[in-house]
Amino acid sequence: MVSALGLNHAVLNTVDLDRQVAYYTDLVGLCLVERGSDHAYLATRSGADALLLRRGQATALTGLALLTHVDKSGEEIRRQLADDGIAAEIRHDPHPGVASSVVFIDLDGFEIELISDRRIHPASPSHGVAPLRIGHVARCVPDVARTCEFYGSVLGLKVADRIGEHFVFMRTGVEHHTLNFIQSDRSRLHHIAFEMQDSATLTSACDVLAQAERKVIWGPVRHGPGHNIATYHINPEGQMIEFYAEMDRMTNEALGYYDPRPWHGDRPQRPKTWPAGQDIGIWGPGPPEGFLKQGV
Ligand SMILES: [Fe+2]
Q1: Distance, CA 180 to ligand 1 centroid (Å)?
Q2: E-strand spans in 2-147?
């Protein structure tokens, strides 16, 4: 088993590269690391990788890059995947600041890239929303149990919480979730989430969205699972984007519970299955009609 340690970047096909680059740089406040005729590579103001945009025929999430142990060579990672029956290839100089990576295709046809030698780019002046980092990606999948079993057994992700049987939160480290999987009729992106510095900057993010006439479709709310404060909006290609802060953290794995917070309903707050079909948020409005059916 390879241990995925976090999210490095998401890979998105776009039908209008210039429009998406303008949205992510001017409004979201990401910084261009590299721009070609058919792609753009974006990082946060901290210099952390965030998104690879590629010109494509249809808007879609096509892959995810995950971090793994810095001392693992590409060949070691490839062999570990082979032990789990997964064919992978080593790529050299795949992205700015990345010397090599190991790539395979997951159960749902998504490209998963493992990076062990990430380099942090220079910090840049911030504008727009300017999140700290890309935090998690939620995907709709046709067999949520099978996908979660795959990500647990092949990449070492842990189940952080469930909502019924149809929504599973998985984590790569101390933060409550890195990948979410939602039962659906077909594979697609549900949303991409960026972490804000705190709830004050999350409020400012809503003001920035309003100035750009981009409507907040849900939030601010404090969720039940993960207990993050969150807002959601739709980007120019119809993809849902979340900004969030104050997500649960399990800083001591051996204790088996999330660091205590006043807004927790359980004491201690351990991973659990939340009830489906009812409002499980801590405060704020319930989700808009058809929220889980969203996604491109
Ligand atoms: Fe989310």
Answers
A1: 8
A2: 6-14, 31-35, 39-43, 49-55, 60-67, 89-95, 98-105, 111-115, 133-141
Would you place residue 271 in the very low, low, confident or very high pLDDT band (cuts 50, 70, 90)? very high
**What domains, with CATH codes, occur in the chain?**
6-115 (3.10.180.10), 133-293 (3.10.180.10)
- Rounded Cα distance, 213 and 135, in Å: 24
Structure tokens at 224: 């039940």
Rounded to the nearest angstrom, the distance between the alpha carbon of 71 and the centre of ligand 1 is 30
The pLDDT of residue 229 is 98
The arrangement of strands across the sheet holding 60-67 comes to 31-35, 39-43, 49-55, 6-14, 60-67, 111-115, 98-105, 89-95
> pLDDT digit string (tens) for 38-93?
999 999 999 999 999 999 999 999 999 999 998 889 999 999 999 999 999 999 99
Q: How far is the CA of 268 from the centre of ligand 1 (A)?
A: 23
